[in-house]
């Protein structure tokens, strides 16, 4: 018998409920889409709006941590103050880069063999060494194998997509740019590769700044005999900076290598270009500042007492290590204050901020902070951030995935072979009384046992500085630290691009941990070659420190005389500082001062505009540029420079600490009263004109 079940009551109502729920889903989806569109429109309006009626400040909304804040929306380049702060140095406007190539009919003679090079060191040491080994290969008439950079080998935990030299520079560009000068190959022939694995290739550990005589009389005979030699460059720079007059062509070859052949690989180049675009998106010029405050440099020059606590101990430990290995000739403990007064220590970020504010740069000036390491941490940068609102670096202008893309595919889990510290379990107290008699003896005074020793856990000694509390010997670098050191080369490559393109460059220190020119010196040399007239402050630290000490008690309420004297000194060294650099930096590193070998003069204007010392020492025998490089008939040197001083500069009493556009009438009145009492005001203002 077939059973027939009655239909459930309310079946139609259930169907209506399903339809109703479906409609609610569509309404909710429509609301989400509308909200997303509204939010997107809001961000677009906030990003591209011209300004806000309720505020005199302008801030662009970006996806980065930097939020630029400017006092004036209109930043006119025609103002006299703008010309005084950002305009090119007119004494050097007629100087142009000119490292002429060989003619197309040049044919290199038969090669004497292969030169294989291993390079150690940091960014500036690597760059100096590569330029030197190219000149050495040309001097020996040898085929150069692409140099191997020890800091970027696969054993350092970096991406396997790049091989040593290619981790930082473009191999194809390097070979193509020097095809008319030397022959370059990427690897050794197969038979020589086997000999290298068996360590049968003769090797030379090249001394720093070796002479051409060393290579012609020691290396060349071995090259003739074995057809291959290996050069190990440990300290950066394997050829003396100043060559004889008959080898001037090799100096120009150095320039062609540094400024034409050494191009960063595509990923680094693209990210550096993006950062430059993001800085210039506001339409304002910017300053690049390199502190130069590294642990090695501070230890070598004896500047430990300028820091406190663990930083002083770390610097002293490094200095003791240098003394033990003969790098430093001197005592472990030195008077850091005296060395600072003699200009042998870096200028602190606070002091650089004072100089820039005294020179006339406003609080909303964009400052790009360069350098992979600022010893002392963010604490040393706080005064600079308090003086300038728009202080940025690569971390505030990039996204994490952009840096990851530049690094390439890396192993996420590195195995650290260094033994990790063991936990120290609490010690048992074996001297504690025991027994039933002791427990039931009643109340009486009992001496407290000594507390157990504190257990040492890994987080107590983590970080690159944690070993100071555990041992007198600095531990070996872990694989992760080696990877970070390789990343620092890429960071410095980006900083190098930004600093070369900056409108103004300010070095805090120009010496490294061996007393040689450092990263900032390379930047100044590149700017001198590429655009000699760009504003590069070659600061005389001894003289500037004297100025700062004279007004130390009233540094934030400086008078007009002090500010005018400091401005005059800084302006003078924009051009006359080249004469000092000729004797200080060029004997140690040619790339820090590639002048005048790699430059030419387009006209006789230099005889009219430049100071006598600059003309007599550097420009008198400079070669004349080809006719196609000559500028127009207009004589820029005849223009009146009297308009460079801006009468709208803030009063001397407010120039260092006024942080906003709000007018402070009381302080301004005090500053105006101070300026009216200056007897030599006209003379000082005239001294600021160029």
UniProtKB/TrEMBL annotation:
Comp. bias regions, Acidic residues: 638-649, 677-690
One Gene Ontology MF term: glycosyltransferase activity
Membrane topology: Single-pass type II membrane protein
Composition bias, Pro residues: 444-453
Recorded GO CC terms: membrane
Entries under Pfam families matching the protein: O-FucT
Pathway: Glycan metabolism
Protein family (similarity comment): Belongs to the glycosyltransferase GT106 family.
Protein name according to UniProt: O-fucosyltransferase family protein
Gene name of this polypeptide: OFUT27
């Amino acid at each position: 018998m077939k059973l027939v079940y009655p239909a459930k009551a309310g079946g139609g109502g259930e169907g209506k409920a399903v339809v109703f729920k479906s409609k609610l889903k569509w309404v909710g989806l429509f609301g989400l889409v509308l909200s997303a569109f509204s939010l997107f429109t809001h961000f677009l309006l906030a990003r591209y709006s011209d300004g806000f009626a309720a505020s005199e400040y302008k801030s662009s909304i970006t996806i980065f941590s930097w939020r630029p804040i400017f006092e004036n929306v209109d930043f006119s380049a025609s103002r006299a103050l703008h010309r005084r702060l950002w305009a090119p140095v007119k004494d050097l406007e007629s100087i142009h880069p000119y490292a002429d190539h060989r003619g197309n009919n040049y044919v290199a003679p038969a090669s004497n063999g292969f030169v294989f090079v291993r390079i150690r060191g940091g960014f500036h040491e690597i760059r100096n060494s590569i330029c030197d080994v190219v000149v050495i290969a040309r001097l020996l008439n040898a085929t150069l194998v692409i140099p191997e950079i020890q800091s970027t080998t696969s054993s350092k935990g970096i991406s396997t997509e790049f091989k040593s030299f290619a981790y930082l520079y473009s191999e194809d560009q390097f070979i193509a740019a020097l095809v008319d000068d030397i022959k370059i190959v990427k690897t050794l022939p197969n038979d020589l590769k086997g000999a290298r694995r068996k360590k049968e290739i003769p090797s030379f550990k090249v001394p720093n700044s070796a002479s051409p005589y060393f290579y012609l009389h020691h290396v060349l005979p071995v090259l003739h005999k074995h057809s291959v030699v290996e050069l190990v460059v440990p300290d950066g720079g394997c050829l003396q900076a100043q060559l004889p007059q008959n080898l001037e062509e090799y100096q120009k070859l150095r320039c062609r290598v540094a400024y034409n052949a050494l191009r960063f690989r595509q990923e680094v180049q693209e990210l550096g270009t993006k950062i430059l675009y993001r800085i210039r998106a506001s339409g304002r010029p910017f300053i690049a500042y390199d502190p130069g405050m590294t642990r090695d440099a501070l230890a070598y020059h004896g500047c430990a007492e300028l820091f406190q606590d663990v930083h002083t101990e770390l610097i002293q430990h490094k200095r003791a290590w240098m003394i033990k290995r003969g790098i430093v000739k001197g005592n472990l403990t030195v008077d850091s204050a005296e060395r600072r007064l003699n200009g042998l220590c870096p200028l602190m970020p606070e002091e650089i901020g004072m100089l820039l504010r005294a020179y006339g740069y406003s609080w909303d000036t964009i400052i790009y902070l360069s350098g992979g390491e600022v010893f002392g941490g963010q604490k040393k940068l706080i005064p600079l951030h308090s003086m300038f609102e728009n202080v940025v670096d690569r971390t505030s202008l990039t996204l994490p995935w952009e840096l990851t893309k530049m690094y390439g595919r890396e192993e996420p889990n590195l195995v650290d072979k260094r033994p990790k510290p063991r936990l120290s379990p609490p010690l048992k107290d074996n001297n504690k009384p025991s027994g039933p008699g002791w427990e039931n003896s009643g109340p009486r005074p009992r001496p407290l046992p000594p507390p157990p020793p504190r257990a040492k856990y890994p987080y107590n000694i983590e970080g690159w500085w944690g070993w100071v509390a555990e041992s007198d010997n600095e531990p070996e670098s872990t694989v992760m630290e080696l990877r970070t050191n390789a990343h620092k080369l890429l960071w410095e490559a980006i900083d190098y691009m930004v600093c070369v393109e900056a409108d103004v460059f300010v070095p805090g220190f120009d010496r490294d941990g061996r007393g040689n020119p450092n990263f900032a010196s390379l930047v100044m040399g590149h700017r001198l070659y590429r655009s000699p007239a760009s504003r590069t402050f070659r600061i005389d630290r001894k003289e500037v420190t004297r100025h700062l000490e004279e007004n130390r008690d009233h540094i934030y309420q400086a008078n007009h005389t002090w500010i005018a004297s400091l401005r005059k000194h800084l302006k003078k060294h924009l051009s006359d500082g080249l004469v000092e650099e000729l004797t200080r930096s060029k004997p140690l590193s040619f790339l820090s001062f590639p002048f005048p070998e790699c430059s030419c003069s387009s006209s006789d204007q230099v005889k009219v505009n430049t100071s006598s010392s600059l003309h007599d020492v550097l420009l008198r025998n400079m070669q004349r540029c080809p006719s196609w490089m000559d500028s127009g008939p207009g004589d820029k040197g005849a223009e009146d420079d009297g308009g460079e001083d801006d009468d709208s500069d803030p009063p001397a009493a407010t120039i260092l600490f006024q942080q906003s556009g709000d007018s402070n009438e009381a302080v301004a009145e005090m500053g105006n009263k101070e300026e009216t009492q200056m007897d030599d005001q006209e003379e000082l203002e005239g001294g600021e004109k160029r």
